[in-house]
Design goal:
single chain, 10 helices, mainly beta, 9-stranded antiparallel sheet, 6-stranded mixed sheet
């Protein structure tokens, strides 16, 4: 019996070998103050999807202090706060979720928790069977959204706060604590029950929750008919331009119309008609490919496989292909082996990787139909999706490809948004997501940018293309990275989460860090910092250690714009760093490192989460609240290495402050909120991920949330709900 070693994602993070310019290579000339001022937004304000949420007519408003019954001044919950007033959470290394004074954090839904009354509660000492995880929480909770549930219609209602469906991703697994004694191999094979448990621990959860109108206490409705799991084996349909393509043909679906499962679901999105979007990020590492497989492939196949990180001789992340079927069909395990094994693609799984890497639509209110992989939005390492919805305009979906040197994309629907399509389910998805234009971003050196259309027959995307011989739009979307290479898109430093400012329509994207900045990646105005930081007084960290956030605004504030302006909003840094590194003026109340998760609530409050390894000698990962301005509100600055750049308006404690910190070795991720702003949900991913083995965990959370002295419990990823003790508005 052999325990598996930890997974390292390097093969999935750096596969762009094109000679396109990198974001680091733009802006060779300094940008003047005059051009900076020209970026200032016009008076036109575009309404986003998020800004349509109301909540002001809810019966559980804030006109009364719920803890005392004493009348207070009425609060317009939809109004953006003028400043942040909650008491800042101090940096710390505690093994709990720490929230501001007057707030409380409650663990709502942790790994292994049952969502069906028939199944028992989690027991650290009696790990449930693999098949039972079809009715239990998955692992590594990530992106998340709250959908209000109308009690009469049993459908989506954006104004309802006291009852709803909470939908969340389970990105991957921490196998050390998922199994009784960690993952194992027997005679070179993974035990089938372990593999089933791991496959089922991926995917998505849909759980019904209820919130007390007075106390704001939130609970899961265990007996709800809406509770369900979507896993790594759930049947999914393809829709859009690649559906039915031979690129998606497999032994399971020779016609290329279906596949099984979704995994590595990182960030998320949601549609204005009330469905959930889950993104498939680092999907390629789940597949194995032998060293001799190249000899059986066409040249263009080899180009595409390498571009997505599946080189000949690649091993798989978890070894699912080694399992021997007994409980399930052998075919469920064979599908992870991508070798050419038959005379036709319809008889093996050579195209298996092509069936992942998509945006997946899930209707939380309808479990009768299969989830749908929306192929027209392109295939890459989807990190997140932000939809900008304006009545009478086409919808725009902004998406990042989270890998070094990858791109930012936009999909614009052909159909114009009609609010009559709310609760239209997958039919609305067909209307708005099957037909449209896919774009990739190119950033110019003068603070402007273009959206370059990725369409077969345009911009050189045809069979004579020197990067890849495109023969159809199915080729373009399936190999969107190659299409973006071919049109000269701008390489970015791991585009993470995207979000749209409901106040002015600007789009924000997190760029988490870059250890090679200043060495193989020269600094420039857009990525201006290269510095050193000593971790724990032992390890020297180099490059852009702490990351930053960029933003851009569409020309004319319309979703169909093919040009935009951009600047940098915020630089992560330690408060004690020199001012030419700490360019945003961060203090001990708001310093941060490696911004990752990010979301604007409908009021215009920006929530920023971190996934960091550079500042964790001082503090655990965190979430902050921000009140940002707009493009062009700052000035020029010069960094420690002499690079001149543009810095957004410096933050203050009133406009950026730390709202929470997480337990040991976790990532804080996933953000959702009820429309009345009285409950906010976050996810704690992989606490104790650096533990050596299951017997000696380095974190004991979530047990420590209620019993800090617990030193034996297994760490488990979990969803946390945060409310105010007086029942008031979060960050109000």
């Amino acid at each position: 019996m052999t325990e598996l070693s930890p997974y390292h994602e390097d093969q999935e993070l750096d596969n762009n070998t094109s000679d396109n310019i990198h974001f680091r290579d733009i802006l060779e000339q300094h940008i003047s103050r005059r051009s900076l001022i020209s970026k200032t937004a016009s008076g036109a304000v575009a309404l986003t999807l998020a800004s349509t949420l109301t909540g002001c007519n809810s019966s559980d408003d804030n006109s009364t202090n719920n803890s005392t019954g004493t009348p207070t001044t009425p609060v317009d919950v939809n109004k953006k706060p003028e400043k942040l007033t909650f008491k800042t959470v101090s940096k710390n290394l505690n093994d709990i979720v720490t929230v501001p004074e007057g707030y409380q954090a409650t663990v709502l839904y942790a790994l292994g928790d049952s969502i069906n009354p028939v199944y028992s509660e989690w027991d650290d000492n009696n790990i449930p069977s693999g098949p039972s995880f079809q009715f239990r929480s998955g692992d590594c909770h990530d992106g998340m959204h709250f959908f209000g549930l109308n009690a009469s219609t049993q459908r989506f209602d954006e104004s309802v706060s006291d009852r709803g469906l909470l939908v969340m991703n389970h990105e991957y697994i921490n196998p050390t604590f998922l199994h009784p004694k960690g993952p194992t191999k027997v005679d070179g094979r993974r035990p089938e029950d372990e593999v089933i448990r791991e496959v089922n621990a991926h995917g998505v959860s849909v759980v019904e929750i209820k919130k007390d109108k007075t106390t704001q206490k939130v609970e899961i409705v265990k007996s709800s008919i809406f509770n369900r799991r979507i896993t790594g084996s759930t049947v999914m349909d393809f829709a859009g331009v690649a559906a039915g393509s031979t690129l998606l043909s497999t032994a399971y679906s020779p016609a290329g119309r279906q596949t099984r499962g979704t995994h590595n679901n990182c960030g998320n999105g949601h549609t204005p008609w009330g469905t959930y979007l889950t993104t498939e990020e680092n999907f390629i590492g789940y597949f194995v490919r032998s060293a001799t497989d190249d000899s059986l492939r066409r040249p263009e196949e080899i180009i595409a496989l390498k571009r997505y990180g599946l080189k000949a001789g690649s091993s798989s992340r978890y070894g699912w292909e080694t399992a021997k079927g007994g409980i399930e069909s052998q075919d469920l395990y064979d599908r992870w082996n991508t070798d050419v094994k038959a005379d036709l693609a319809t008889k093996d799984y050579r195209n298996g990787p092509n069936t992942f890497g998509w945006m997946v639509e899930i209707d939380p209110f309808d479990g009768r139909q299969n989830p749908v992989k929306r192929t027209s939005l392109g295939r890459f390492a989807h990190e997140d999706s932000a939809c900008r919805a304006i009545v009478g305009q086409q919808l725009a979906f902004y998406m990042g490809d989270d890998s070094r040197g990858e791109y930012i994309y936009k999909f614009v629907s052909d159909a114009k948004w009609d609010s009559k399509d709310i609760n239209g389910g997958y039919a609305a998805g067909d209307k708005y997501m099957n037909a449209g234009k896919l774009y990739v971003a190119k950033f110019n050196n003068d603070g402007t940018g273009q959206w370059i259309e990725l369409a077969f027959g345009k911009n050189g995307l045809n069979q004579s293309n020197s990067v890849y011989p495109f023969s159809s739009q199915a080729d373009v979307v399936t190999f969107a990275r190659l299409a973006a290479d071919a049109v000269g898109a701008t390489k970015m430093d791991r585009p993470e989460w995207c979000t749209v400012n409901p106040v002015n329509g600007e789009i924000y994207v997190t760029l988490t860090n870059n250890s090679n900045r200043g060495s193989s990646y020269p600094t420039d105005a857009a990525n201006p910092r290269a510095y050193e930081d000593l971790y724990n007084n032992q390890k020297t960290q180099k490059g852009n250690v702490n990351g930053h956030i960029i933003r851009f605004r569409e020309t004319g504030d319309v979703t169909t714009a093919e040009s935009f302006k951009w600047d940098i909003y915020l630089f992560g840094a330690e408060a004690s760093m020199a001012s030419n590194i700490n360019l945003s003026g961060l203090t001990d109340n708001n310093d941060l490192s490696s911004p990752d998760g990010m979301w604007f609530d409908p009021r215009g409050v920006l929530w920023i989460q971190t996934d960091d390894g550079a500042y964790t000698d001082v503090t655990n990962c965190m979430m902050l609240a921000a009140l940002p301005g707009q493009i062009g509100d700052g000035t020029k600055a010069t960094t420690s290495n002499g690079t001149e750049t543009l810095v957004g308006k410096k933050v203050t404690d009133d406009t950026l402050r730390r709202f929470l910190t997480g337990p040991k070795e976790c990532e804080i991720t996933g953000i959702a909120m009820t429309p009345d702003y009285k409950a906010i949900f976050i996810n704690v991913q992989h606490p104790g991920e650096d533990s050596k083995d299951y017997a000696t965990p380095s974190s004991n959370w979530p047990a420590t949330q209620t019993n800090p002295s617990n030193k034996t419990a297994r760490p488990r990823s979990a969803t946390v709900v945060i409310t105010r003790k007086d029942g008031g508005v979060i960050a109000g």
